[in-house]
């Protein structure tokens, strides 16, 4: 008998606990919550924005500081409408949608079928689930929308709201948000909120290559917002309508793309492991079917509480993007390579570079990091008759990523301890994000910092006033170390430096 339903229930509970934790401790809030929120849109709270910014800074430095041939840009969100014609988004950036006539609710047809397949898997009918997904894939590849509707009806898939199978025809829906390119209605062409950040890199290829004096192979990195009008947005911040991408397009000489694709594939996996994601929770998923322009594509997936899902894609895109923009803009996107081809003895000359893309979702990496860090363990406190067992919850974040690096606590609010704690706080706050707390018992203060992932708690007590030493309590082990105040900056700095992560790359 399969234990899949029980496992799914446990996983759903884990996700609910993480979502609740994220809100209660200032990581992620539903957007516009006082107005009942906006579906698939979230705000990052005080601790969440620090963690996310740390992840973005880490990615940026890993790309641009550790590679002499990778530089960055920050392209505009609005772009000329022709950009999205050349990229294929105007014609082909679609999802198959279907409405239920009774509930008036709209759904992605492919998600309805995938959810049915998940039900079969949970019931131990893996073969039936596989056949269903294979049929769906074939129909979508053939753009057979009538066949997709027949599949929904034949599988007796009902609307979760109305419970009926009264469906409209399936039709394609473009996911790009559009707006007017002028303040005066009707005066300007329709423009789009970008659905990806990559095109801002492609249209700036020659600007960057010339101004940064780069030779192929070289990369262009960018972090930025993207927008997709997702009809079905689920699983917390995993799929949102407004999200942030961290992308790097690496331009290479044709014929070398396979080598560079494999290099970046391994490099990006090492990055995720160095950040703290467990190796056993990461896997490569090669694309079975490639876009017509792609030579290879793989996803790095992380095992979330809701299963393995993509956090980053690595794609060998050939010369498709630059060639498309070259043809539509009528501006050459070629690079002159004066390196000598050993086969001909002459320079390689002009060519349109091929591209290897790495694209990671900042929000997905944030969620993976939060899921990995969320820990519950059973601990024993007290001795003898006072001994008790309880569950301890904490965030086991890498110290370099933690929102707050250290919390300074006066043991009591008297005898000069608060003043000494404030002195230590002031000596550290220009180097690290630190806080000082006086309220509540010391145990409760420890717990609060554990719940937001603070790696060190520094306690000022009576001995501090005598010998200028403090107790440093470590989040993961709960062990305590006595050290001079004068050593705190170096001790914390060594632990929270990005260098501790870069050493693993």
UniProtKB/TrEMBL annotation:
Residues 132-403 form the Aminoacyl-transfer RNA synthetases class-II family profile domain. It catalyses: tRNA(Gly) + glycine + ATP = glycyl-tRNA(Gly) + AMP + diphosphate. GO terms for cellular component: cytoplasm; extracellular exosome; microvesicle. One of its GO terms (molecular function) is glycine-tRNA ligase activity. It is an enzyme of class 6 (ligase). It is found in: Cytoplasm. One of its GO terms (biological process) is glycyl-tRNA aminoacylation. This is Glycine--tRNA ligase. The lineage of its organism: Bacteria, Pseudomonadati, Bacteroidota, Cytophagia, Cytophagales.
């Amino acid at each position: 008998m399969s234990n899949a339903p029980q496992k799914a229930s446990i996983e759903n509970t884990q996700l609910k606990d993480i979502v609740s934790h994220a809100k209660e401790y200032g990581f992620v809030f539903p957007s516009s919550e006082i107005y009942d929120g906006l579906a698939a849109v979230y705000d990052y709270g005080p601790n969440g924005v620090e963690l996310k910014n740390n992840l973005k800074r880490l990615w940026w430095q890993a790309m641009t500081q550790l590679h002499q041939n990778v530089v960055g840009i920050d392209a505009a969100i609005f772009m000329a409408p022709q950009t999205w014609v050349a990229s294929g988004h105007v014609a082909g950036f679609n999802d198959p949608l279907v409405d239920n006539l009774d509930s008036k609710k709209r759904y992605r047809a492919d998600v309805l079928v995938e959810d049915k397949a998940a039900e079969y898997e949970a019931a131990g009918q893996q073969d039936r689930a596989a056949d269903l997904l294979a049929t769906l894939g074939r129909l979508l590849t053939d753009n057979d929308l009538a066949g997709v509707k027949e599949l929904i009806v034949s599988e007796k898939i009902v609307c979760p709201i109305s419970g009926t199978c009264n469906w409209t025809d399936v039709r394609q829906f473009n996911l790009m948000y559009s707006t007017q390119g002028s303040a005066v209605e009707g005066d300007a062409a329709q423009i789009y909120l970008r659905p990806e950040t990559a095109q801002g890199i492609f249209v700036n290829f020659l600007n960057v290559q010339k101004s940064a004096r780069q030779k192929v192979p070289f990369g262009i990195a960018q972090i930025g917002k993207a927008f997709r009008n997702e009809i079905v947005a689920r699983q917390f911040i995993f799929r949102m309508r407004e999200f942030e991408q961290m992308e790097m397009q690496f331009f290479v000489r044709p014929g070398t793309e396979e080598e560079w694709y494999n290099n970046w594939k391994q490099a990006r996996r090492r990055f995720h492991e160095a950040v703290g994601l467990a190796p056993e929770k990461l896997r490569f998923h090669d694309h079975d079917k490639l876009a017509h322009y792609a030579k290879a594509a793989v996803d790095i997936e992380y095992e979330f509480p809701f299963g393995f899902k993509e956090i980053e894609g690595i794609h060998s895109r050939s010369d498709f993007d630059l060639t498309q923009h070259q043809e539509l803009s009528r501006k050459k996107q070629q690079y002159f390579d004066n390196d000598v081809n050993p086969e001909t003895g002459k320079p390689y000359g002009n060519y349109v570079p091929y591209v290897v893309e790495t694209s990671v979702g900042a929000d997905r990496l944030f969620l993976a990091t939060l899921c990995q860090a969320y820990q519950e363990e059973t601990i024993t406190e007290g001795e003898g008759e006072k001994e008790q067992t309880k569950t301890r919850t904490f965030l086991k974040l890498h110290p370099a990523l933690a929102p707050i690096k250290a919390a300074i606590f006066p043991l009591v609010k008297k005898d000069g301890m608060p003043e000494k704690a404030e002195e230590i706080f002031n000596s550290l706050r220009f180097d690290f994000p630190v806080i000082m707390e006086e309220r509540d018992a010391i145990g409760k203060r420890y717990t609060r910092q554990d719940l937001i992932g603070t790696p060190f708690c520094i306690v000022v007590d009576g001995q501090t006033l005598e010998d200028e030493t403090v107790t440093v309590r470590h989040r993961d082990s709960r062990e305590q170390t006595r050290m001079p105040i004068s050593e705190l900056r170096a001790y914390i700095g060594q632990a929270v430096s990005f260098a501790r992560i870069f050493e693993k790359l």
